[in-house]
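Before drawing any conclusions, I looked closely at one protein, both as residues and as discrete backbone shape codes, quoted below without any editing:
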Amino acid sequence: MTGSMNPITSSVLSVKEIRRYTHQIVHSPIGLNSQERLKQARVLVVGAGGKGAAILENLASLGIGCVGISDNAQVQEQDLSVQHLYGNLDLGKQKAIISREKLRELNPMIDYRLHNVFLTEANARGILQPYELIIDTTGKPETNRLLSAESGQGQQHYIYCNTFGSSAFVFVSPAGKGKT
């Protein structure tokens, strides 16, 4: 499969996945063991806007095994210049639903889970529970507080990313630590 005499085999990746991710397995620092771990990973992206859509595309390209999409907003015309996952035909449609459709086209071998709801204290724990990494791209302080507190209670790593003007910042909290 890679042009060498020794074909790549895996008990985790299918032959089709090995073909798809050959470049990552052979020609990058990722390698087979890390690609297998990526397939077993479960990541939730909260917010499918500009930052979230780009992150979702990258997670799909990498071969993350389970990608959760949490957003309850609709695609609006002003979104199109900065949210490249969406187009004119998507106007008025739910971002979470549309992003899942587009990501399935990009990589159908991933388990995409849809959370097309507004996160609250009442539903956050149940939504976050299956994931080991939570990425908050909403830029909303109230969402940041909620997800930071909930991920701090569980065993999830938490990443909060936001922009301010031309600056960007990222906060990473290891599993079980919560934001300080």
